[in-house]
Amino acid sequence: MPTSPVLQQIRDALVGLPGLSEAHIRDGVVEFTARVDNTTVRLEIDPEFEGRSDVDELVDTVRGLLGQTGRWWAELLREAGRDLAHIGARRPSARLIAEVVRDLRIHDITVFPGGAVVALDSPEFFPDEYPQVQLDEDLEIDEVTVSDE
Questions:
Q1: pTM for this one?
Q2: In 3-state terms, what secondary structure has residue 106?
Q3: Domain encompassing residue 64
Q4: Domain tally for the chain?
């Protein structure tokens, strides 16, 4: 089965970028192993999400994510932890929020036209669910959700 030219363009534009390795094209997406905030994660680029495809936008989003500082990633986890603590408790204590934040780990990232989703692991607080942080095109948090899939 031939590979989509869009997928090849994305892969070719990102191969060799610091923080990325192991490029694969499969099932309509480009996958890399990425290093973000001293954590190795799976990075998936889905160019056809909702019928939109803009190679430059996707590449810029990946570069933006890889270029974020440890402080930025820590703040993302703090904000996600606050929101997630509110899911489990109407008025969570500062201690509970801190515990949720400490439990969060970045699992994988999916980039698509218009933003990205950072999937998190939270083995203590969400052992059978999947917290997710939806980022907009400016890499600002749009929404924090928990999925059972």
A1: 0.91
A2: strand
A3: 5-147
A4: 1
